[in-house]
Amino acid sequence: MAVSVTTHEARLTHDGVDPITADSFEVVERGLPSALDGEIVIDVRFASLDPSQRIRLRSESVGFVPPAGIVGTVVDSRSDQFAVGDTVIAPGAWATKVCIPAAAAERYEAPDGVALHHAVGLLGLTGLTAYFGVTRVLRPLAGEKIVVTGAFGGVGQVAAQLIAASGADVLGVTGGPEKVDGLKRLGIPAVDHRRADWLAEIDRWAPDGLHAVFDNVWGDASARLVERLRPLGRVALCGQMSGIGEAVVPPLPLDNWFRLVTRSLTVQGFRAVDFAAENVAARRALADMIASGALGQEVHVASGWAAAGSAFADLLTGRVVGKLIVEV
Known about the structure:
Strands 3, 4, 5, 6, 7, 14 and 15 form a seven-stranded mixed sheet that branches. The protein has a six-stranded parallel sheet with strand order 10-9-8-11-12-13, with helices on both faces. The chain has two domains: 148 residues, Quinone Oxidoreductase, Chain A, domain 1 (Alpha-Beta Complex), CATH 3.90.180; 149 residues, NAD(P)-binding Rossmann-like Domain (Rossmann fold), CATH 3.40.50. It starts with a strand and ends with a strand. The protein is α/β, with parallel strands linked by helices. The protein is built from nine helices and 15 strands.
């Protein structure tokens, strides 16, 4: 098979069950075979690094190239769907160039005034997850008291702003004063769960209890919020950052699980793929909010794949501030 281009891949240096550190990946060059019928080769411009990628890594071994949502330019096409020079978003990998089935990609035209990196952030999987979690699952009402956990992560930032735009009263829960400050820059008040008095702050903010929780964290902090839900309260369950580095999902240590019955609570898990048929309309709605200034995102950019491993390790331990994106 002819080799048309060279790609550089970030590969695991150890078994995926081992802890992820700055030395867990190495960048290796290899020749990328030419596209076959129905395939395209993409020159990657930006890639999204997300905590959920850690789950996949656990079952992989040395040499594995992690997956990533990407945006880039078609440089070789054996498909009628795309021409060389088209900009596409697609499931890709930690690499400078990838070859994928054309059917997996989607043509992307950056809306006016929207930076290209938002294709893997605000308009990518994290933005879509937040959009569907808020508009299709949580369905906030004006005046409700709603808390977002992991509120300065890629999904949390967007969810908090969408909830605020609905007219509900939103409060972010995050870890560290720099993340509290970051949310304030987005117009979202927040509390630091690392402070001993953070639950007292929640109680002062919502003395009659919470109407809903958009949960990206799971674990102990989320349990304390569920215990503060009012009757008919609800939870949109999105992620489990509290246990993302472990092999199993940690338990939700509620004081009394039967409160789901006695308070008629609703807990609904969801994934963005559940609503994939609505992706185009969702991106249009999000892009309109970006263009109008109603939606923003604080971004942490890693420069190239050589910097990605260290940044990813920091993401898993909460040291990354903002949505993590690699500029390739």
